[in-house]
User: Fold these one by one.
Assistant:
Number 1:
Amino acid sequence: MSHVLAPQQEEERYQAVLAVDPAAPGALDALIVGLHDESWRVRRAASESLRRLPTLTEVAHRLVSVLAERGETGARNAAAEALVGLGDVAVGPLIRLLVHEDPDQRKFAADILGHLGRRSSESALIGALADSDLNVRVSAVEALGRLGTDEGARALEGLLKEPETLLRLAVLESLSQLGWPPPLPVVVPLLSDPLLRRSAYRVMGLIPQVAATELISRGLSSEVRSIRESALGALGTQASVADGPLRAEIDAQTHAALKRVPEAVEFVTQAFENEDMPVRAGALVAAGALREPSLAIAVAEAAREDRLLREVIRTLSRLGPEAGRELLGRMAELSLPARAAAAQAMLEMVDPSYVPALCALLEWAEDDLRAVAVKALGRTQSPEAVAPLVALLEEPALAGAAVRALGVLSRGCREAVLAALEQVVEQRPSPAAVAAFAHAGGTAALPTFRKLARAADPLLRAAALDAAMDVDPAVGLELARVALTDEAAPVRASGARAVGRVGDRSAGTLLKPALQDEDIAVRLAAVEALGESGAADRTPELEELVSHPDGALAGRAVRALGRIGTVRPEVLKEATRHADAEVVKAALQAGAVSAEGVALAVELLKHPGWDVRAMAARVLGDSGGRDSLEAVRAALSLEQDALARRALTDAVERLSRR
Amino acid sequence: MGAQVSRFDEEGRPEMSAEEFRLLRDHVYAHCGILVREDMKFVMERRLWPRLEALGLRDFTGYHRYLRYDAQRRVELEAAVEALTTHETYFFREPNQLTAFTDEVMPALQQRNAPIKRLRIWSAGCSTGEEAYTLAMLLQQSRRFEGWDVEVHGTDISRRVLATARRAEYGPSSLRAAPPDQVSRFFVPLGGSKVRVKDEVRAWVSFGQLNLLDTEACQLVPRMDAIFCRNVMIYFDVPARRRVLQAFHERLVPGGYLLLGHSENLLNLGVDFELVHLHGDLAYRKPLLSQREER
């Protein structure tokens, strides 16, 4: 490896590090040398290569020793990066380093443990909170902030009364990062310290109490701009964690506080430009409280931050119709996320006067936005919206949205909608036009649907059948019998669905051929229809499908059997062995109320899929007896997945009450 | 029993449970490496509602099954990815970076490629094409590459946005940052508020569908002199970013440039790019001597 030690060019040294064989003797030494290279590229390559060595414990110890090399800043940082990359194996040596005599190294250890984020370092880091060196304590605070454990958060909370400002600042920031609200009385005194105020407001926003709202509101009407801004950030945070009654209180108090602020609209407008996301969130709450339509554009643009979308939509809808018209008129100037949010909010505000502007939007906007405009046209309840919507039935990307919008529009102007659709269905029939006519309640078109059920276009035949089902199930069933023999798969599938919807006693007989259909979509439709119609006479065929390798077919068969109520224990057992977790979940659901199903659920608490384990826990919570409690508790003690843990915890609680 | 009961809002729209969120998120991630953050459940719910509505599905469990099993699942997965990512793009976006590209990167590329008179630029994650056309416009405006074999290649995972890109017709929102003289120079009015990119610009631009995480498919992309990948990496997690950057590294010629969005960087990603301090911006460059991918 001499070429690693003394090559002339950076590129050669870099290539030499990359060429180190991890299994070769001396690889560790060579890479440690690389870690000390003057070039960051070489150091980084060495740091990454160290992870590939077979003796990671030894690597971790060597790297820890590099951390002690004062004056070798580049190498120490590269070693720290490498230790983070090593994962679990680095935790032990770093915990030992936390009690090293050199505070500099203890600090390094705390920093790296924080980046590693392993729960196993929790108690050592809590211990380091009592270190004699302030810098080490601050690093331990930050590390616990990254770890995110409840025990760590509680330990941090206890430090808020410590005398060192730097320490309290780090604690506040870490608690804020953890979303862990400390008790309000502990936070209140910190508001008077200019160095801590901003962070104190930040954590106060996490406290979902009216008393905190009052303090935040007081800050909002402060004469000091920086206090107002901090309070605005707290407001944004508190609004995001508040439930209904507290949220109403927040809105009311914000409104009252802002009335005392001179040039409140200007203050809020400027807050939308703030880099701090909670401050922008607070600006949204404030804008909603002010109900100032001129803020509509700034509010909509706040949607560029995805996390603010909920608050943006809420605020826009509070700004009223004037704001809606402002947004619609300036849609082309908005960013795409703002347009999307504005369009969503606009849906709540539309009236007949919006029709021309919405039609203009249809001319140029992207499809997503046009789809919202289509929906909005339906909500205008204006006869003027009929023609543009009918025209869109011929545009594939928007036809579905137009069908639904015409259905909504027909509630207010049914005659106009039906007349327009009747004409289209007669003259230029399309699947979308047929569907729209049926949605709008066009019983008069039954003869047309019958005629179209014999059309050359199979999609039109299928649509005509669906439409006939919508307006007259008896006619639909009659057409469905013919459709089941159609040469086109979409029509046969439509026929199968129709039989399921009618739920006729003859369903099992009618659907038997469809169960053997060459087209999977028809078979799936038939299985679904059997479940829907409760046709028990096809149980053997459905049972056979339970072990079908296609998870879609197998899962649907299990669900159908569950709905029919004929699922036998051995079939359930078979389904739980399926490779597809969705089939296993269907089996759990189908057998949930039976003793066999409960027994299977206990077994499935060990399933490799987190979603299966979670569902098994819910089944036991719903239907299990107290005798399941032990198994659920045992599963909970081993469970690592957060969602499965949540389901298991809930199950333990419910079972304990039985 | 057992299944989580779907909850609905006052308009009858389904709420997304934590488990539905996780299943859908994991499904999307497995498909294209796009990671929807934990705190984005509300956003995911809002953005997928129109998909449920369009497909006539009652809840997100049904949507997950549709994505798993339906014959149209691939098309729908694309629609879902499209809904979850923001295709915010417009002509002449991020002018500082474009100026730096014009004033500093273009001359370097001109000098280096003069012997072969060939230039290739990749607009990775091009969405509806505004960026790719903007780059072609800037290259033409510079007059440095007249008579050269020039191609700006735009790729995106979504077929739908590519159809828009190929049509090259745009509305006022796409032009909101375009200087009026550029609009009159490079666009043809179509009536109403729409315009179309002129044919001479379109002649320098091509498009193709590409999942940036599909390593094999990336091999089909020719060697590039510069790659623009702006505001795309934000959707990926660290491993996915590394894979994408590795693909970029392989497709760039030594000394080729990588330009990211203004909020993106390569910190802690462990890829072999060097930082280039341009006067108006930062860029990354594949080291001239790096021969890793040739070995």
Number 2:
Amino acid sequence: MSWLKSIARELISLFVDDGSFAMAILVWVVLAVSLLPRLAPAARWSGPALFAGLALILIESVVRFARRAK
Amino acid sequence: MGVGWGHPEVTRLGTTLVASFLASLVECVEALTVVLAVGSVRGWRSALAGAGTALGTLAAIVAVLGPALTRIPVNKLRQIPFHLVQFVVGGLILLFGLRWLRKAVLRSAGLIPLHDEQTAFAKSAAAMRQANAGSNARWDNFAFSAAFNITMLEGTEVVFIVIAFGAGGVGLLLPASLGALAALVMVSALGFLLHRPLARIPENTLKFLVGVLLSALGTFWVGESVGLAWPVPHSGSSDLAILGLIALYLVLALGLVPVCRLQARIVAEEI
């Protein structure tokens, strides 16, 4: 049964290895899907706005990692 | 009439097939490395039996669960809003893809070590040598369970990848399955022919590309699930936005590599 535990651990690690990075993505996705359709449902920038937030999260995460790396 | 990558249906099916193939390729290569280490140190009979049993178990699970899913009454399925499925699957793919992309950027910038199949092979082989034999000449339980575990582990990830891609839209399960199957056949054939780890497969480049593809698909599906709009031509399908997202993520990730190197250098000079 140890492989079951390993598989569960591996499945979680498929999505999360930096907790704050995963949390930031989830928070932005929830915010974006809650707010963007209400702010401007038909606006052509609502999709790109979702991307822009995710791009900023990726930039912040890798730059933070680079600044901590020795 | 010619149908190219610009055609929305081809974009959707093609992206799913390629992403599933590349993601499965990475998992299959990692499993092959350990099975080769087990086989070369402890003997091929138990190693291949372990890997084969795991593949058979996975096939049985898929064979039982697949038809069971299709037997769910359509009126029950209709009770689950499709946009909810698309949102959940898109969110999971987004987490998966951005995690791979982040790691691939950091690896390309030299901030975390590259995954090396030769090193992984040497480590696994050393572990196999150190372990007590606990076996007779014909059968090796340790080798069997080591090969079984790694094949089950990586195989379950491949099954998850296929299900996640397949659940993203109508008709996507077939290209997702074909992509994974092609990866399995290719890696098995290469492993059988070469008998050594596939160290020349550029795993980080693959993870970079898969990260880009998955992040684009995940972003698109999450956006589609709540009806966000994309700047595509009025006559075109919103599926065309996938190509734009792939290009944007690729440019972003490639641009982040030198930025990370620069940041690390600045911090090193400050110390």
